[in-house]
Automatic annotation (TrEMBL):
Note describing how the cofactor binds: Binds 1 [4Fe-4S] cluster.
Record-annotated IspG TIM-barrel domain positions: 2-262
Catalytic activity: (2E)-4-hydroxy-3-methylbut-2-enyl diphosphate + oxidized [flavodoxin] + H2O + 2 H(+) = 2-C-methyl-D-erythritol 2,4-cyclic diphosphate + reduced [flavodoxin]
Protein name, entry field: 4-hydroxy-3-methylbut-2-en-1-yl diphosphate synthase (flavodoxin)
GO MF, one annotated term: 4-hydroxy-3-methylbut-2-en-1-yl diphosphate synthase activity (ferredoxin)
Entry's Gene Ontology BP terms: isopentenyl diphosphate biosynthetic process, methylerythritol 4-phosphate pathway; terpenoid biosynthetic process
Enzyme class: oxidoreductase
Amino acid sequence: MIGGGNQVVVQSMTDTDTADIEATVAQVKLLADAGSEIVRITVNNAAAAQAVPEVSKRLADLGCNVPLIGDFHFIGHRLLKDYPELASTLAKFRINPGNVGRGVRHDENFTQFVEIARDLGTPVRIGVNAGSLDPDVMAAKMDENSRTAEPLNSEQVENQALVESALSSAEAALDIGLTPNQIIISCKVSRLPQMVAVYRELSEKSDFALHLGLTEAGMGQKGVVTTTAALSTLLEQGIGDTIRASLTPEVGGDRAKEVRLCQDILQAVGLRRFRPSVTACPGCGRTTSTLFRELAQDIQTHIDAKLPEWRSRHAGSESLQVAVMGCVVNGPGESRAANIGISLPGAGEEPRAPVFVDGERVKFLSGPNIATDFIDMVESYVQTTYGK
C-alpha cells in the first residue's frame, strides 16, 4: 500500500529496451533483489507492450513478484486499449498529462487512459515534469502573471503551472471514476530548491500520495548529494510516499545503486531500516594506525556477505548497530551507544581494545587476531539476539 500512513516505498526504473525481454527481466530482478519494491518499465511502442506480459511471467517463474509500473507517454491510451493483457499485467500506470495531446484531443486521450485504469482498479501516477509541462497550462499562467502588478519570475510561474497541472489532472481523474487512494502525484524538476518548493505546495494543497524525485539528479557524487539533500529535506517534513533516485549510471555501472541510495536515505532519516549500520571514526593524528579502518572495512564486508542469511533467519538484525572506533577520545562512548562496539587503541595508548555489548564492557581484545575475534563476537551477537 502507498500513502495513508504506510511506510515510504522505494522505487526504481529499468533502462533496457522493454522489447528485449531477457535484458528487461534480468534488470528488473537485479533492482528487486537490491530492494526496489516497485519497478517502472518503459512502454513506448507495440513491441514493448507485447513484451510486458512475458516479462512478468518470466519474473514470476524466477520467484520475483515485484509490482511493475508501465511508463507511458504520447500513445499510452492506445497501447492500453490495443493490448488488454498489457493493461491487466501492470500494477500501476504512469501518465504525463503534458504528453497526451493538445485541447480536445488531450481530454479525450486522458479520459480513455484513466477509464481503462478505473475499470481494472489500477492506480495511476500523474507525473508532471518541468521538461514536458502541458504548454497550454504554462502559457495561461504566463499570460495571467504578465497582467499582475508585481509579476513573479519565470521559475515561480513554472512552479504554479506544475502544481496546477498535477492537481487539475488528478481532479479530472476523480471525475472519471478513480478514487483518491488510486492516484499518486509527482512534479519533477532537476533543480533542488525548485523541486522542494513544488512538493511543499503540493503537500499543502492536497492529500494525494506523492512520489518524490528529481527529474535528472546527475552522475557520481553530484547526483548522490543532490538526491540526498532533496529527498531528506522533504522526508524530514513528512512529505513523500514513494521515492526514486534518478542517478545517471556510469557506462556499464550498477543500476541498483539508485535503490541502495534510497534505502540509505530512508535509514539515515530514521524512517526505515534495511541493513545493519557501522559507525567508524574518520581518523586523526591520534589514530596513525590503519587497524581501525581495516577492521571497519572487514566488518562492513562481513555484514554485506551475511545480510541475505540474516534477513531470512534473524528477523530484526537490520537494526544492528556496530561501532569501530580508533582511540580513547570518542571510542568508548560511541562503542557503548552501539549494540556492539570496539574501541581500538590510538597512538600511545595501551595496546588493548575494550569491547562493549549493549552498553556494557564485556572484555578486552588484543594481539594479532583482534579483527577475527571481534567479527566472531558480532556474529555471535546476531545469532543470540535476533529472532529465528
